[in-house]
Write a structure and sequence with these properties.
alpha+beta; 6-stranded mixed beta sheet; 4-stranded antiparallel beta sheet; 2 helices; 12 strands
Length: about 260
Amino acid sequence: MDCLASTGLPVVSWIVVGVVLVAAGVGVWFALRKHKRGASALGLVLLLAGGGALISTAGAPPAQAAAHSASCAERPVTGAVSTSTTGSGGGTGSGAGTNTGTPTPSGGATATPTPTPTVTSTPTEPPLPLIDLTPTAEVEPSILPNDTPTAVNYIVTVKNVLSDPSTGTTAVFVDRPSESLKGAVTYAGAGWTLDTTSPTFLYFIYATPIAGGASSQPLTVQFQQITLAGAPVTIGTTIPTGSGGDTNPTNNSASAVIRLFV
């Protein structure tokens, strides 16, 4: 507003001065023209000065306006400047600073799905096979005469009391009583083989799987000379733990007793 006022002030002043001079010149000229020649000249001078001021004022405004406009452009502006800027979103901001407007989102936000954690299941161990091997043992004859060498047959069978068939081979240990050491030992039985012999036991192998609820072929071990001198003799049989896939070691032994005839 100050710059606009200063632009119009010299023009008005010149007009006022011109009008005053013209009026003064006319008044002086009319008032004093009969009395003094010099007064008439003074009135004429004032009239011409006022007219000149008016004429110069009529041509001055464009140049003065340009000068004043330039001076206003060069004059630093102090204080907060209110600006309006059209933002990219179409909004118009006002106040100090530059308003960028409300941005228009380029598209809807896409939510990233949270992955479902993979549950690692503990593998279930397969159930143990239902294999339970147990031996049976008997002797023929079971009663011997006193101090008389006698051939005795020791008969062994292996039964699978559960439902699953045995796996691999089934081993059987047969004790060798000291009363039989003087005579030979023979054996018979389908599927049975004698692996090793020792002074204390005989080691037999049965290679055929034994079905659930079934029994092996009988193994007959013949002690050709057993001599009793009064006390009974016990012959034992044992299946090693786990042999044939056995899962129950509590019933892996059996025995038969030879007694003296009295």
